[in-house]
Amino acid sequence: MLAALDTSGFRAWVAGGWGVDALAGRQTRAHRDLDLALDVTAHSLESAIEVLHGLGYDVETDRRPTRVELAAPSERWVDLHPVVFDDHGTGWQANVEGLAPFRYPPDAFTDGFVGGTGVGCLSVQQQLLFHSGYPLRARDLADIELLKQLTAMT
User: Which of 13, 56, 116, 137 is in the most buried spot, having the most CB atoms within 10 Å?
Assistant: First the structure.
């Protein structure tokens, strides 16, 4: 999926639980979906959805402009978070109900590994920021603890 998006000209960064695992370089827990921060500055979100449609994904939850979740057979899910970049390299993702947009500063992006393959992902600091402001579940608390361990290692 990442390769298909890349071939179509999209930049994407792994976020959420898989993003934490990418930073750790190993899978630490089961994941329901793959969260992607998707650069839609030069290409439309609809074009990305068409790329994924070609891989068997269909829109399941449409919360545009904030996010779109797609599902494919065999319990495969991807949650797209469209991000538009300004001239300073800061990314902006729309928020719901008129709330301030989510900010991705230029240092919010780094590299990690999923299954031994290098992927772009959100930084430890960005992941910690995004793990705040909502009721935390057990898996969120585990992700935060792992992120804090990763911070201590650097």
Answer: 13
